[in-house]
Amino acid sequence: MKPLLGEGHGTKNKKVIWHCIKSSKNGKKHCPDSKGIHEVVIEEAFVKVFNEMCQHNREIIEEFILTIESALSESTSKKELTSLKKELNRVEEKIKKLIDLHIDGAIDRENYDNKLLELNTDKERLAEETNELSLTASEEKEMKTRLKSFRKYFDANKPLKKFDADVFEYIVEKIIFGGIDDKGQKDPYQLTFVFKTGSKSTITMGKEPYSYLSPDALRDLC
User: Fold this and answer.
1) Bridge-based pairing state of the strands 14-19 and 2-7
2) CA 93, CA 49: separation in Å to the nearest integer?
3) pTM of whole model > 0.70?
4) Domain 73-152 has what CATH class?
């Protein structure tokens, strides 16, 4: 499935609708049972699934939180970044000293060029590694902040009142659209949330996928 933007009726707002990639790229005949689903429907379905899981399967979320917290606490990216920056500074100092030696005539041109090439190669490598690790460290810092907020929210044992993108990104690995109902019939409006813990939760919206939406969510569809 992939999101497509559609114009809202009578408004300037764009509405996101999810469609099957195979169907949208190659035509409806390649996935005849697929249906376009408004993103707000998926969000509301997640709120319902999440609240039910918090009520009946809190240990699943607790296990996932502990796993992420443990992984973040064991990360050495911040320490490695400090070490890389120090090494990069040392190389830059060596380049400056080499240039000074060349200016003073203390080193011949051939040795100067060879050494400068070697040092610049090291500098480029270290700069690239530093940038990559800086991004990782920044993402981990942001994740720690978000996880702390989520932990506080989760421990308060309060149900979600509306869709929370942070909560969704933390625990959902993917969503499977469509499935087979209890009678063995194809149900294009069935949603299966696959969580990062490996567990799954399926919600069937029925033939009318918007019947259970809140008034605010229904207004968003207009």
Assistant:
1) antiparallel
2) 57
3) no
4) mainly alpha
The H or E element that residue 187 is part of is strand 186-195
Query: pLDDT for 165-202, tens place per residue?
Result: 877 887 788 888 878 877 888 887 788 888 876 678 88
Q: Where are the beta strands (DSSP E) in the chain?
A: 2-7, 14-19, 37-38, 172-180, 186-195, 200-204
H/E element holding 71?
helix 58-74
Contact 88, 126 (CB under 8 A): yes
* Structure-token pair, residue 96: 């400056």
Domain ranges across the chain: 1-34, 73-152
Alpha carbon distance 18, 3 (integer Å): 4
Question: Alpha-carbon distance 198 to 152, whole Å?
Answer: 23
Q: How far apart are CA 58 and CA 157, in angstroms?
A: 9
Q: Are strands 186-195 and 172-180 parallel, antiparallel or unpaired?
A: antiparallel
